[in-house]
Amino acid sequence: MSTRNAPDDADVVAAALELGRRLQALGWMVATVESCTGGLVARALTEVGGSSAWFERGFVTYSNDAKIELVGVSAATLAEHGAVSEPVAAEMAAGGLARSRARLALSLTGIAGPSGAAPGKPVGTVCFGWASAEGGHRTGTVLFEGDRAAVRRKAALYALRQALVLLPDSPEG
Q1: How far is CA 121 from CA 65, 83, 91, 142, in A?
Q2: pLDDT at res. 165
Q3: What is the pLDDT of residues 22-38, one digit of tens each?
Q4: Which residues have a Cβ under 8 Å from the Cβ of 90 and sit 6 or more positions away?
Q5: Computed from CA positions of residues 51, 54, 56, 62, in that sequence, does the dihedral angle turn out positive or negative?
Q6: pLDDT classification of 3: cutoffs 50, 70, 90
Q7: Could you tell me the pTM of the whole model?
Q8: How far is CA 106 from the centre of its chain?
Q9: Cα–Cα dist 135/104, whole Å
């Protein structure tokens, strides 16, 4: 996926639908833990009727307190690495998985802009986490270009597409 061309809402919803179909075929549900996207991924996953078959719940953890209280991110991890970091994204995904009946959780935390840049973390930096009840855990960081809306859409699309990688090909694994 190019990080230069901004996807539109239809691209994000199409990716959500693809993930939803795969989840439904597996009998799995997903939970989202979002910071910089503020629920954009959850919205895309619930855009079509029948999404209750694959969408379990979403957490919008915009503040550090919300990350701690809602999904159990460690205050020590936040202090050591900052909210925009792979360790925090990993804890967000693991916490979303632990606090839901989902078998897959994905998380996003980043700097959508136009302000908020920090040393080593420019605007457009988004950290991701994916956690599977089957033990698959991944994190990643991407620097997206564009305005706030473009960064958020690109991040949502990336999170959804990469979530497919953690899914087994069949219900047996």
Answers
A1: 21, 11, 19, 11
A2: 87
A3: 999 999 999 999 999 99
A4: 107, 129, 131, 137, 139
A5: negative
A6: very low
A7: 0.94
A8: 4
A9: 10
Q: What is the CA radius of gyration of the chain?
A: 15
Q: Is 114 exposed, middle or buried (0-12, 13-18, 19+ CB in 10 A)?
A: exposed
Q: Which two tokens stand for residue 143?
A: 């620097």
Q: What's the mean pLDDT in 45-66?
A: 96
Burial 124-142, CB ≥16 within 10 A → b, else e: bbbbbbbbbeeeeebbeeb
Query: What type of residue is 112?
Result: A
* Cβ 159 vs Cβ 108: under 8 Å: yes
Q: Which two tokens stand for residue 170?
A: 């069949």
- State residue 5's pLDDT score: 62
Per DSSP bridges, beta strands 30-34 and 104-110 are parallel
Q: State the Cα torsion 19-99-113-143 to the nearest 10°.
A: -50
Residue 38 tokens read as 């503020």
The CA distance from 164 to 6, in Å, is 21
